[in-house]
Amino acid sequence: MKDCIRKTEEFVKSCLKGDSSGHDWHHIDRVRKMALHIADQENEGDRFIIEMAALLHDIPDEKLNEDIEKGKRILSEWIDSCSLQKEQEQHILEIIYSISFNGGHEAELNSVEAMIVRDADRLDAIGAIGIARTFAYGGKKGSPMYDPAINVRKNMTKEEYRQGKSSSIHHFYEKLLVLQEKMMTNTAKEIANERHHFMEQFLEQFYKEWNGYE
């Protein structure tokens, strides 16, 4: 299993090399470490399944591929090459395809391993790292830092979430600030509280500077 993990690390590094959208290898490694930390604190879950799912969770992401099918094919081919038990393959794939936010259109989770990996991925989307990743992704996508004329979007479809008009600051209200209450493990809930508070402080300071301290 250690050899499988090592090879998967190298595979993911090669796939995400040069990414500047906040979905680079360092994001993957943080999610992996956080997921294993949550598993240890909760004393639950298959560590191998958790680590593999965390390492591979962004490989099929449509944001990082020419199209959805190409990402799915790359992931499927890698999983097949790992010579895992069929149950392990299915569990890892099930986790990967169930953790995305999708504008609030979330899949139901069927295992503690999925809960742990989802929590770990979402923790990396909030707090100081989450703020940095938000502006990195916004810049990569060509979104404005902030535009007061844009309304905060609610009840979006998946397509509207991906393609609609927004800004990096609006993304806080459309995703980041709602993640705290969606954490599923006690460990993640505790960590999320601190990171959520930090984001609120950041926004308060941002608006002060934006408005010239009026």
Topology record:
Blueprint: H1 2-15, H2 25-42, H3 47-56, H4 68-81, H5 86-96, H6 112-123, H7 127-141, H8 158-163, H9 168-174, H10 186-210
Helix pairs in contact: 1-3, 2-3, 2-6, 3-5, 3-6, 6-10, 7-9
Organism: Falsibacillus pallidus
Domain HD: 24-126
Protein name: HD domain-containing protein
Q: Please give the CATH class.
A: Mainly Alpha
CATH fold type: Hypothetical protein af1432
Average the pLDDT over all residues and give the rounded result. 91
pLDDT < 50 stretches: none
Task: State the helix count.
Answer: 10
- How many distinct domains? 1
CATH architecture: Orthogonal Bundle
Q: What is the rounded Rg?
A: 18 Å
Strand count, sense and closure of the main sheet? Answer: none
What is the N-to-C order of secondary-structure elements (H for helix, E for strand)? HHHHHHHHHH
Q: Which structural category do the helix and sheet elements fall into?
A: mainly alpha
Pfam family, one: HD
InterPro entries: HD/PDEase_dom, HD_domain
Protein name: HD domain-containing protein
Domain HD: 24-126
